[in-house]
Amino acid sequence: MMTHGSWRRFALLALAVVLALASGCARKDRARRGGTLVVGEINDYESLNPMGTTDAHARDICNLMFLSLLEERSDLLTFGPRLAESWEFSDDRLRLTFRLRRDVVWTDGAPLTAADVEATFRAQKDPATAWASRHLKDRIDSVRATDDWTVVYHFSAAYPYQLMDANDGVIMPKHVIETLPPGEIGAFPVERLPSSGPFKLESWVKGQALTLVKNERYYEEGKPYLDRVIFKIIPDPVTLVTQLKGGEIDCMEMVPPGEIEAIRKNHPELVFYDFPTRAYNYVAWNGARPPFDDAKVRRALTMAIDRRLINENIYYGFADECTSPFPPIIWAYDPEIEPLPFDTAAAREALAAAGFRDSDGDGWLDRAGKRFEFELVTNHGNQMRADMQIMIQEMLRRVGVKANPSTLEWTVFLEKIKRGDYDAQINSWRVGTKADLAPIWACTSRQGYNRVGYCNPLVDSLNAAASAMLDFEQAKPLLHRAQRIIYEEQPYTFLNVVRARNVVHRRITVVDPDAISMYHHLQDWWAASGKE
Asked: What is the CATH number of the domain that holds 253?
């Protein structure tokens, strides 16, 4: 029997569902088809080939052009139908069967079938393809198309992220990728790849603009509502904000925090979207180069950096201090890790213990006759990172360490980092929705996303054991211990976890931006008026 309180909660829930459905119907009824959305971007994209990019923003674009099997939901744990209408596990959870929609076609008119899913898996799994997320398929032994619309994934073991691992990576056209040697798939021009998502590529003038247009063959009737989306590359943040205020662009992600109050006050036509993200900023110390191979030195450098002052002066409250390789939005995050203190005296003592002293009285620490001096690199066009460079340079100067800031164009910077050709870098990760430390921190990932050369077998074993557990509560203590070890060793100085600071013109109806991507549901956005 329901109590009065239970009935009240039930009634409120039912009312909320009715209102949500009514709102959804109303929004769908008034949605206007047509129009153009102009998005301002600071950086161009590394690559738009789904097998060739490691750029998170590029993956957002890929997900607008190519379909994955399932739609990941904003809780970062559950899924809805997408290319697959339904799915089910065998009793032992070693087989996962997907049943595909029958009305999806590639932009060249060829049907998208289970054969495409099977061919995509073979390419993902092949080491010669060099797909950056290949490790996610390690426990998938094979994928078999049993007919045109049914595909079965065979696993080597049951574990909690089977569905996520099967879904990771968009589906590629078999009739193209199987004509290529595996090593050439990731470099194949995206302009020549048939796609299947709500949008297709119209043009990409590198350094200037990327234009997507409505895919008329897309399976959701009437969608996308927008005819065209232009991602305009504006490498100067001042110009980018000026164009946002002037109406030359409709949308901008991560508006500089110092601009937010003025925009709110003077530009009522602009709407803010503020929500938790999966992103954190860091200083990465190249562990392949002395003295950054010494955890005591890295800890000393972190203690010399006032992270709170950086957050206050640059982020204006839109960031919190970071103490973990998992942001708080991920279920495995350990909230009990205490940040290293900002303590210049302790930093000097730790550096002295590592052999660094000012032996010649020039104000700079040295060891074995060599000054502690290094290059601190980041990408050009990101003023906040440039400001962090200057602040960190001054903070380290106070302990006798000479940091020399430099900036590079985004794609040049990214290539330099991937080669390991740097001393220290300011960068950020938008981490995966899977609570898995392996992609960035595993010893075996040093040729992939692990670009600091970090390797701790205990971290690897704790992460592997946790990843095999079906019960997340049992896995948490192992992942908490692994996070603490990483934080203690400071391969990064973890700076801050940021909130979204996204702005869109009021004429655009934005549907459900979330931590997966601001453009997660772009096919549902629509323009009330304006640019055609």
From this structure: 3.40.190.10
Instruction: Outline where DSSP puts E strands in 246-386.
Output: 251-252, 270-273, 276-285, 319-321, 366-367, 370-371, 373-379
Nearest-angstrom CA–CA distance, 454 and 446: 7
- The confidence score (pLDDT) of residue 440 equals 95
What lies within 8 Å, CB to CB, of 394 at 6+ separation is none
The answer to whether residues 310 and 161 belong to one domain is no
Q: What is the CA radius of gyration of the chain?
A: 25
Are 330 and 457 members of one domain?
Answer: yes
The gap from C-alpha 351 to its chain's centroid, in whole angstroms, comes to 34
Q: Is the same domain home to 89 and 154? A: yes
Q: What is the pTM of this model?
A: 0.80
Kindly state the average pLDDT of the residues 206-230. Answer: 97
Determine contact, residues 281/427, Cβ cutoff 8 Å: yes
> Tokens 């996204």 label which residue?
502
Under a CB-based contact definition with an 8 Å cutoff, are residues 463 and 242 in contact?
A: no
Which candidate, 78, 86, 79, places its Cα nearest to that of 102? Answer: 86
The backbone torsions φ and ψ at residue 380, rounded to the nearest 5 degrees and listed phi first, read -70, 145
Residue 284 CA to residue 242 CA, distance in Å, equals: 32
Could you tell me which residues come within 8 angstroms of residue 29 by beta carbon, excluding any fewer than 6 positions away? none
Do 86 and 119 belong to one domain? yes
Domain residues for the domain of 480 are 277-499
Residue 256's closest CA among 382, 379, 380?
A: 382
DSSP-derived 3-state class of residue 15 = helix
For the chain, how many structural domains are there in total?
3
Q: What is the DSSP letter of 339?
A: P
Shared-domain flag, residues 490 and 508: no
Bigger pLDDT: 308 vs 275: 308
pLDDT at 23 over 70: no
Which single residue is written with the structure tokens 């049992």? Answer: 474
Running DSSP on this structure, what letter comes out for residue 88? E
